[in-house]
Design a protein that fits this description.
Layout: H1 2-17, H2 21-28, E1 33-39, E2 50-56, E3 61-68, E4 70-79, E5 86-91, E6 104-105, E7 110-111, E8 117-126, H3 129-132
Antiparallel strand pairs: 1-2, 1-4, 3-8, 4-7, 5-6, 5-8
Organism: Zasmidium cellare ATCC 36951
Signal peptide: 1-17
Protein name: Ubiquitin 3 binding protein But2 C-terminal domain-containing protein
């Protein structure tokens, strides 16, 4: 008997501490993202042309097979994240399987090629200080 009452008390406490659906919905409405700019001209075209690309954090973002030579952060453009803690990687495919660049960040752009190459998607994520070392 005491065991049943004890378990009931524990389950009730856990249920009251669990986030409610309305709390989860409120968290889902917050957009976490950064702004990238994609250089859509080769290294020799002057003036260079950059296209904006908003990217949500931890969401593989399709770019629609854009031809690019460089991707860099639009540094002042960030929503609910410290742009200095974000790292991204470009991919040649929409599934994010075939890397198209090394990881890049606000201080180091992704220099893809002097010519144009196809970039299909980008994934940006937050990197902690411990992960940077």
């Amino acid at each position: 008997m005491y065991t049943t009452a004890f378990l009931t008390t524990i389950l009730a406490a856990l249920a009251s501490a669990a986030p409610t659906t309305s709390n989860l919905a409120a968290r889902d409405d917050t957009y976490y993202g950064v702004g990238l700019t994609i250089k859509t001209t080769d290294a020799f075209t002057q003036p260079p042309v950059y296209e904006p690309a908003p990217v949500e954090i931890s969401v593989l973002t399709s770019l629609g097979n854009v031809s690019a030579s460089e991707i860099k952060f639009d540094v002042p453009v960030a929503s609910h994240v410290d742009v200095n803690q974000v790292e991204c990687r470009a991919y040649k495919d929409d599934a994010g399987v075939v890397p198209g660049s090394a990881p890049f960040n606000a201080k180091t752009p992704a220099e893809l090629s002097t010519n144009l190459v196809t970039v299909a998607s980008v994934l940006c994520y937050v990197v902690t200080e411990a992960e940077k070392v």
